[in-house]
Write a structure and sequence with these properties.
The longest helix is centred in the last third of the chain and has 26 residues. The protein has one domain: Four Helix Bundle (Hemerythrin (Met), subunit A), CATH 1.20.120. The protein is mainly alpha-helical and about 180 residues long. It has a two-stranded antiparallel ribbon with strand order 1-2. It contains eight helices and two strands; from the N terminus they run αααααααββα. α4 runs parallel beside α7 and α4 runs antiparallel to α8. β1 and β2 form a beta hairpin.
Length: about 180
């Protein structure tokens, strides 16, 4: 991937997990997860159907697809969190984000439905995170595609990054297009 393509695809950089659990970052992660739906509200404010159908980069998803993807991804993350909190290192079910993006709901359901879903989902997600015990952050699930146990703290960091990553893709497109 050339440098300009990399910058368009990963405007906040690729995700890099910390080597060890930094508890001092918990509040920052939770704040990012809590803020995401409001960030998306601002990102799509006053965009018309043609603008929502614009890819954030050549060969990339449209804004519409990105927002529906965030909803799909974050629903899966929330379920994984609850599984990790209620079971002993459960094996999670991977999902194919590209195939999910091709399902008819992505084209036919208005994007604001997924943003509304994210408002409700993130409100519940943040409540779970804020009420966890310190030892809960070390609980894990097993990811069969990556063949490793993922601790809740790392998953939370990842999804805080994931929201910022996609918001910045949309924001930078709006900036480039002068919308």
């Amino acid at each position: 991937m050339d440098e300009s393509h990399e910058q368009l695809a990963y405007p906040v950089g690729r995700y890099e997990a910390p080597e060890k659990y930094p508890p001092e970052l918990q509040n920052e992660w939770i704040a990012a997860i809590e803020a995401l739906p409001k960030w998306l509200d601002l990102c799509i404010e006053n965009l018309d159907a043609d603008q929502l159908d614009t890819p954030y980069r050549p060969g990339g998803w449209t804004i519409n697809e990105v927002i529906h993807h965030i909803a799909d991804s974050h629903m899966n993350a929330y379920i994984r969190l609850k599984l990790a909190l209620t079971e002993d290192s459960p094996v999670i079910k991977p999902w194919d984000e590209k195939l999910w993006a091709e399902l008819p709901d992505v084209e036919t359901v208005p994007v604001n439905v997924s943003v509304t879903l994210l408002h409700a989902l993130h409100r519940r997600w943040v409540q779970v995170l804020r009420n966890m015990q310190p030892e809960d952050w070390e609980r894990t699930y097993f990811h069969p595609e990556h063949e490793r146990y993922v601790p809740i703290w790392e998953m939370t960091d990842l999804y805080a990054w994931h929201g910022r990553h996609h918001v910045e893709q949309i924001r930078s497109l709006r900036h480039r297009m002068n919308w």
